[in-house]
Amino acid sequence: MSPIAPTSLRKPGRALAILLALAGLPAFPATAELIAADREATVADREVVAATRRVERGASPDALVELASAYMRKARETGDPSYYDRAAAAVDRALASDHGHYGALRARAWVLLGKHEFAKALRAARAARRAAPNDWWNYGNLADACTELGYYRGATHATMRMMTLRPGLPAYTRVAALRALFGDRLGAIDALELALAAADPADPEGRAWILTYLGHEHWALGEVATSERRYEAALETFPDYHLALPGLARVRAAQDRTTEAIALYERALAVAPMPATAGALGDLYARIGDPARARASYDFAVYMGRVATARGQTLGRELALFLADHDRDLDDAVRLARAEAAARADVYTDDALAWALFKRGELRAAKRSSARALRLGTEEAAFHRHADAIASALGRFRVAARHRRMARALEGDA
Hints:
Layout: H1 14-22, H2 32-37, H3 43-57, H4 61-78, H5 82-97, H6 102-114, H7 118-131, H8 136-149, H9 152-165, H10 169-181, H11 185-198, H12 204-220, H13 224-237, H14 244-254, H15 258-271, H16 275-287, H17 291-310, H18 316-325, H19 330-343, H20 347-359, H21 363-373, H22 381-393, H23 397-411
């Protein structure tokens, strides 16, 4: 079978579960018996089964933490946010039973990261570190929380400590993330290759995750053919992987294979609907002269983003970028981006705010936000495209030309 052959029908309820979760309605998970009988059950499915049965025999804090960990794995595997809520509930039960249970304290930071409650995650990770300062796991949570909040010095220190305590796959992926942020995507690729070599062959989703992010890094450098191979390898390893499908769709669009790109984006929406995916699909419908479907995709992107934001999920930045890119509801785009920037000071939020402000005509404020987005030297073509537009509007044509050259160099043959 082709690595991108349609297989999403084997999980027909996944997209429905995500949409129900976004709307605040309960999704009914498959019972342990159904999962156990499913020949295509994943590693995460079987972990959920084993942990559920252990909890049924006795809901000890250890058993509940095991269940939370299984739900977290399932959340990453599917992109279904309802699993984060289930993981949080399991951790809360464990802490209600034993408020000082270290495994639950440590897991709480991980769960909060999944729920995008980054400030709370940082506090929880610091509390777990105080309880066990030599546990490498805590430094991974600290690094992730600091990275998301834009505390890059703290993220660097936590990652260095993690590498000292336990060099290996989790540390390598954090090194890769920081290298990419600090303008060294080739170094990020090297670290991800180390992570791939260390990955468990019996964990296809884990390998697919690394392959997908290798695809992202090669794409960011304009290496379209290499990114294509990585995305295809991810989908061969873990069919219909929700993180890899949009990446390969983006590659197909760049190759002018529009029909294939549309099919891939549609599959991605069926597996894990996200505003960025719906927006990209709408752009392709517009490209082929189908305004009705383009409009429907754009409306769906807005609906998903607003419902998720209303429920406290951190999709405000993504929705703000979509609105700014498509010149829709620019007041709302600025409001969303500013709300996000008030909660986190990372470079991607700075760029989203800069773009929204530019589109609304607030050029001086846009320039300040753009400068913050560029402060680490991140090799991100979009940052430079946005800086080009802002500088051009301000009459700073030499600066604009420099950013234009940098964007084109990063985009390569894309």
